[in-house]
Amino acid sequence: MHPLDNSIWKALTTRQAALAESFGEARRFVPAISRLGAILAPTDKGYESLAALLRVGEMVNLALEGPYQPRPGLTLAYTAPALQMVYTASGSALASGAALDAQIVELGAGDADDMVELTELTKPGPFAKRTHELGTYLGIKEDGKLIAMAGERLKLPGFTEVSAVCTHPDHIGKGYARILMGEVMRRICDRQETPFLHVRQSNERAIALYEKLGFEKRVLLQHAVLRREG
Fold first, then answer.
1. Model confidence pLDDT, tens digit, residues 82-108
2. Are 102 and 68 found together in one domain?
3. Are residues 135 and 70 part of one domain?
4. Residues 55 and 146 grouped into a single domain
5. For labeling, which of 21, 140, 154, 184 is most exposed (least CB within 10 Å)?
């Protein structure tokens, strides 16, 4: 197996186990932190464990190796193909990204409402009020308003995921995503870890940026949002 196979499961059972809720062969982050979850394997037992872990009406986001097959108690609310990409270039090439004139600030609990507002507007993926607790999040502000951000989400041995890369529509094209990603990636590489990320297969603009930054496509996954039925 590749170290990034079933990456959410590995994060929830290793470096981020303290942030997990579990039942049998299913794991998920504390809902206030993230809606991401995983099962050990796509078996009857795995999905039965997942259904038991969720409350009626709750949803969970999975990254599956193949299309979701219907299971009792769980309804597919959304699905889309997503690429997993891994950084394969030299981390030393990232230092120049932070040298540009943009003001980079570290984001925290006091910025949570602004972070949720920006992600709800730009839709980079699920983001909750406590998602910032998963790792370092960096942002760029203008007149006190958060206009771009990027940060860390999944953490597993040797790897950290770059996530929540987004820019307010009024500020697209200024290079903020590249600047912030470069700084997040530099910090990951300084820890002797490898950056990776997930992106919707249809997001060609983002994929082109990630390839310029040194990421390569590794595998195509199925992003699936499941809802627990009564």
1. 999 999 987 666 655 444 555 899 999
2. no
3. no
4. no
5. 21
